[in-house]
Design a protein that fits this description.
Layout lengths: L1 H20 L8 H32 L6 E5 H18 L3 E5 L3 E7 H17 L6 E9 L2 E11 L6 H4 L11 H6 L6 H11 L3 E7 L3 E9 L2 E3 L1
Helix pairs in contact: 1-2, 2-7, 3-4, 4-7
């Protein structure tokens, strides 16, 4: 299928470069070694673009099936935060997490992980050194069947004229910075699709120069303090 046709050549290229880089019989100059590293980075970016495009293509075709199950969202959130922590450290950004004791949801666990990764990655990407990204899980007593996941950052913020387009495919506010950071312009579009596929809603609230809040409202099975 299309996935195989697009991903296989990239996998072959990456494997070939890794074999070349670890060949003890070949000595590379610092420049050549850096070139190999740069090419591997570009292949990773291409693989990410292919994966994101395939996700949205399947969504458009109605074949991107959700594998729903009942599970506690809190350990999933904490797992994603742990996984993203090294990236935050490398960028000099603080990463915090605030959750209740337990939140039961009926959802596709892997898709929600992807949603969280996209939003946290986006926050880290656009938050300067010594800034903070915080993910929180809350619920409204008036709506005991709804859970709100908020990813808040102290980053550069999003101007009002850009906010209505932020979830559109390939929309990038700062194209130069986004390209430098490895952005594809597809992450937030996928975040919106995952949210809406679960019967939820995603919104953004932002102040330029102060930061942004991405707010995801999802159905919950049960919430325990």
């Amino acid at each position: 299928d299309a996935s195989h046709e697009l991903r296989t050549p990239l996998s072959i290229l990456m494997t070939a470069l890794e074999v070349l880089a670890t060949d003890r019989n070949t000595v590379f100059s610092p420049f050549a070694g850096q070139m190999i590293s740069d090419i591997k980075d570009e292949i990773r970016k291409m693989s990410k673009i292919v994966s994101n495009m395939l996700t949205l293509a399947r969504a458009d075709a109605g074949v991107n099936v959700l594998y729903k199950e009942e599970f506690d969202l809190v350990p999933v959130v904490k797992q994603v935060v742990r996984a993203m922590h090294p990236l935050a450290v490398s960028k000099g950004t603080g990463l915090r997490c605030r959750t209740p004791e337990r939140v039961l949801v009926y959802a596709d666990k892997e898709k929600l992980k992807q949603l969280l990764q996209i939003l946290i990655d986006n926050g880290i990407k656009y938050t300067p050194v010594e800034g903070t990204v915080e993910i929180s899980v809350d619920f409204s007593p008036k709506q005991a069947t709804a859970v709100t996941v908020t990813v808040r950052d102290t980053g550069i913020g999003i101007a009002e004229e850009h906010r209505k387009f932020i979830f559109e495919r390939f929309y990038r506010i700062d194209k130069v910075r986004s390209r430098k950071e490895g952005g594809t312009g597809l992450g937030l579009a996928i975040a919106r699709w995952i949210t809406e596929a679960h019967g939820g809603k995603i919104e953004v609230d932002s102040t330029p120069g102060q930061g942004s809040r991405f707010i995801v409202n999802l159905p919950a099975v049960k919430i325990v303090d």
